[in-house]
Specification:
The protein contains five helices and no strands. It is mainly alpha-helical and 160 residues long. Helix 1 packs antiparallel against helix 2 and helix 1 runs antiparallel to helix 3. The termini are far apart.
Length: 160
């Protein structure tokens, strides 16, 4: 990261350390500023943040908006988000999108689990039915075998 960005963030955090109310206001302003939002509701502080940016990046004449200043702001914006991505933070929109996707996948997973449970019970019932049929056929075959054996015994020579 370049020294101007680090200086800006250092000044930002020093300013934020002076009081929680001021820190909350600065964070709100910084979020609005980076995301291209409008001035704050109370109309104060936005210019302070712009002045802090201009001072850190050496843009002492804010009326002279140049291509260099625009590039510096783009670089600042990229580094701002990189700073918060380092410890694993993500923008709120991305978080909400991922949360919605996770909820959808969880619901789909639950539905698939129910389907698997129903199909497993149907398979178990089918196996039971097939076993009953197999046992019945086996019993019929044993009975027929015994009858056939008795019948053949009756046709044997030497049997009355």
């Amino acid at each position: 990261m370049d020294h101007q960005f680090l200086e800006f963030m250092g000044n930002f955090f020093l300013t934020a350390a002076t009081g929680q109310k001021q820190a909350d206001r600065m964070l709100k302003l910084m979020h609005q500023w980076v995301s291209g939002g409008k001035n704050s509701d109370d109309g104060t502080g936005f210019d302070e943040l712009t002045a802090l940016f201009n001072k850190s990046y050496g843009l002492l004449d804010p009326s002279a908006v140049s291509e260099t200043a625009a590039r510096q702001f783009e670089a600042f914006s990229a580094q701002y988000w990189e700073l918060f991505r380092m410890p694993g933070m993500v923008p709120e929109k991305k978080y909400r999108d991922l949360k919605k996707k996770c909820e959808h996948l969880t619901a789909e997973n639950d539905s698939l689990k129910k389907t698997i449970t129903v199909q497993a019970s149907m398979l178990a019932l089918n196996d039971t039915f097939q076993n009953n049929i197999s046992n019945g056929i086996e019993s019929i075959m044993e009975n027929q075998h015994a009858l056939f054996k008795n019948m053949l015994t009756g046709f044997s020579p030497g049997t009355p």
